Amino acid sequence: MQSQTLKPILITAIPAFTDNYFWAITSSQENVANQTTLKPVALVDPGDAKPCIKYLEENNLQLCAILITHHHADHTGGVAELKSYCKNKNWSLTVYAPENEKITNVDVRVMDKQIIEIAALATSFEIIDLAGHTLDHIGYYTGDVVFCGDTLFSGGCGRIFEGSPKQMLSALTRLTDLPDRTHVYCAHEYTLANLRFALAVEPNNAELVHYYNQVVERRAKNISTIPTSILLEKKINPFLRCQQQEIIDSAVDYSGKKSINTLATFTVIRQWKNEF
């Protein structure tokens, strides 16, 4: 497991299933509220309780909060067991999630632009509406970090299951409006497959070619490619570059249309990726 220190929090990946990452957030500060012998931790999208509990016990951590981005089972499947685990230990746990009755065992429902305080970690998160992949999808943003679930991946974006291409493009725009330095913590290790598609769409992008070669080396060593950054994604991610002429031309060639705008370009390459 790899960690990245970003004051005042430390973020660690808990790999799960085939390619999921659950994110563990601890404080990098010594003096945190309600400090005990166990260091507090929050989990993002814990779809399976077992690796999470193993991580908690191996690292002497006390679960204080769960942040859910959307209702899909690989993001919510571990919540009930984790709540039971915390109850048995007399730990206070708060589960945050978007408004959706499909997500159960929730303590606080959150919405766009709301600020939530995680006192035990001495940090707060702003909620970002990211409807597109699902209609309930949200992100959690703090400082130089965003947890974006299945909206933005390195080199790609999530499938559109419930929303529209317009909603998905709007969600991605909200993320790219964040500062370039923002670290992007998505929920899956899809980077290599995404970049193979990106190269089909924009083969002459030198930065994309360079990044692809780096990712091939990293994945050969089983090294994670996440987090990525907003700056990097603006340079290499075709779904964020739909105004670039090469991508427009590729979308025109694939669709057979003579002329398309930015939304149509996005719609075409998202469908193309589905079939790639």
TrEMBL record:
Enzyme Commission numbers on file: 3.1.2.6
Gene Ontology terms: biological process: methylglyoxal catabolic process to D-lactate via S-lactoyl-glutathione
Alphabetized CDD domains for the sequence: hydroxyacylglutathione_hydrolase_MBL-fold
Pathway terms, separated by semicolons: Secondary metabolite metabolism; methylglyoxal degradation; (R)-lactate from methylglyoxal: step 2/2
Residues the entry annotates as binding Zn(2+) 2: D74, H75, D150, H188
Reactions catalysed, as given in the entry: an S-(2-hydroxyacyl)glutathione + H2O = a 2-hydroxy carboxylate + glutathione + H(+)
One GO MF term attached to the UniProt entry: hydroxyacylglutathione hydrolase activity
Any single Pfam family the record assigns to this protein: Lactamase_B
Top-level taxon: Bacteria
Amino acids binding Zn(2+) 1: H70, H72, H133, D150
Residues of the Metallo-beta-lactamase domain: 29-188
Keyword Isomerase included in the entry's annotation: no
Record InterPro entries: Clx_II_MBL, Glyoxalase_II_hydrolase, HAGH_C, Hydroxyacylglutathione_Hdrlase, Metallo-B-lactamas, RibonucZ/Hydroxyglut_hydro
Cofactor(s) listed in the protein's UniProt record: Zn(2+)
Coiled coil: none
Note on how the cofactor is bound: Binds 2 Zn(2+) ions per subunit.
UniProt keyword annotations, A-Z: Hydrolase, Metal-binding, Zinc
PANTHER family: HYDROXYACYLGLUTATHIONE HYDROLASE (PTHR43705), HYDROXYACYLGLUTATHIONE HYDROLASE GLOB (PTHR43705:SF1)
Family per similarity comment: Belongs to the metallo-beta-lactamase superfamily. Glyoxalase II family.
Subunit structure as annotated in this protein's UniProt entry: Monomer.
Physiological role: Thiolesterase that catalyzes the hydrolysis of S-D-lactoyl-glutathione to form glutathione and D-lactic acid.
NCBIfam families in the record: GSH_gloB
Listed name of the protein: Hydroxyacylglutathione hydrolase
Organism the protein comes from: Colwellia hornerae
Source lineage: Bacteria, Pseudomonadati, Pseudomonadota, Gammaproteobacteria, Alteromonadales
